[in-house]
Structure prediction request, 95 residues.
Amino acid sequence: MEKFQESLQKMQKMSDAEQKKMLEQLKGMCLCPGCPTYNACMKEKTERLFCVLGKSACIVSMKACLCPGCPVTSKMGLTMTFYCAEGSEAQRRER
Ligand code: SF4
Ligand code: SF4
Prediction:
C-alpha cells in the first residue's frame, strides 16, 4: 500500500488518546511557523499541521511553502504543498 494511505489507516485505528498524542507530536515537527506564508492571524490562532487538520481559517497569501522539507512529509508520505491554502492531503485526494 502507498505510504500516505498506510499512515492514514494507522491513525484511524488509533484510540482517541493515541490520536491526540500523535497529533501533538506531528504539530511539534511542523515547519509552518517558520514559513514566509505563515502570517500573524495563523500565529494568533496557533494554527499548524494544515496537511492533516485542513486549511487555515485565515486569509492566506501564498509566498513559499516549507512542506517539502518538513519531517512530517517523509513520515506520512505527503505529496503536496500549500496545505494552509488548499486543504489537507486527504481532502485534496478525494477531489
Ligand atoms: S508538511 Fe507542512 S503543514 Fe504539514 S506539518 Fe509539515 S510544514 Fe506543517
Ligand atoms: S502549509 Fe506550506 S505554505 Fe502553508 S504555512 Fe505551512 S509550510 Fe507554509
Summary: Residues 31-32, 35, 37-38, 50, 65-67, 81-84 surround iron/sulfur cluster (ligand 2) (CB under 6 Å). The radius of gyration is 13 Å.
